[in-house]
Amino acid sequence: MRRPAFLAEQARNARGPLGRFIAFVMARETWSDNLAAIEALAVQPTDHVLDIGCGHGRALGELARRAPRGRVAGADPSELMVEHAVQRNRDLVRAKLVDVAHASVETLRYDAAVFDKALCVHSVYFWRDLERAFAEIARVLKPGGRAAFVLRTAANKAAAAFPSEVYRFWSRLEVEQAMIRVGLSATMPNGVDERIRPILIVASKRK
Ligand SMILES: C[S@@+](CC[C@H](N)C(=O)[O-])C[C@H]1O[C@@H](n2cnc3c(N)ncnc32)[C@H](O)[C@@H]1O
């Protein structure tokens, strides 16, 4: 069944009471994909980790648990999601172990080469310019840093159910080639069938 555009729009830019409800549901729906990305990154206790399009911020708490002597940052362009993520992680934010920024992937307001790891789960559909976004991620990663992406590709059978005026499903080739053009090398550690499941891509920045 096709998802109504007003609901899809909330996934791209959550607002108002419906946005709060969507954030709550999303935190459950995407959890296993977030865990897969976190596992693929093998987060170390001192790692500095960035969650791009962090939404509700559920992954931020898990990352802080795995990197207690590092730094965890979330970035999201939805004011409501930032508020939600701060509220969910308020003790960690107060302790300065987590911070959440109002920012989109195209303009991450961090210095260059500050993160060891980054993740980005089900957010790529809303990016206007894949190459610019990956270039910005590559900029903030340290040499040898890694970023894990979970996304449905254009080949996914469920893609047709999402309104094309809100979601853009990229092909795997488009994603991998855009990564390569900005100096990231891509691997797919779990080799799932992209027609059925979201794929996991791990991108590495050269040392
Ligand atoms: C489907 S939600 C996924 C949230 C979370 N990563 C998860 O796995 O549940 C997509 C998120 O991407 C964010 N987003 C939309 N456009 C973005 C952009 N250009 N850059 C970064 N994040 C974006 C949305 O605000 C939303 O929080």
Structure description:
By secondary structure, the chain is α/β, with parallel strands linked by helices. It has a single domain, classed as Rossmann fold, CATH 3.40.50. It contains eight helices and seven strands; from the N terminus they run H-H-H-E-H-E-H-H-E-E-H-E-H-E-E. The chain has helices at about 5-10, 15-30, 30-40, 60-65, 80-90, 90-95, 130-140, 170-180, and strands at about 50, 70-75, 100, 115-120, 140-150, 185, 200-205. The chain has a seven-stranded mixed sheet with strand order 3-2-1-4-5-7-6, sandwiched between helices. Helix 7 (about 130-140) crosses helix 8 (about 170-180). It binds S-adenosylmethionine (SAM). S-adenosylmethionine binds next to helix 1.
Secondary-structure topology with pairs:
Blueprint: H1 5-12, H2 16-29, H3 31-41, E1 48-52, H4 58-66, E2 71-76, H5 79-88, H6 90-94, E3 98-102, E4 115-121, H7 130-140, E5 141-151, H8 172-181, E6 184-187, E7 199-205
Parallel strand pairs: 1-2, 1-4, 2-3, 4-5
Antiparallel strand pairs: 5-7, 6-7
Helix pairs in contact: 7-8
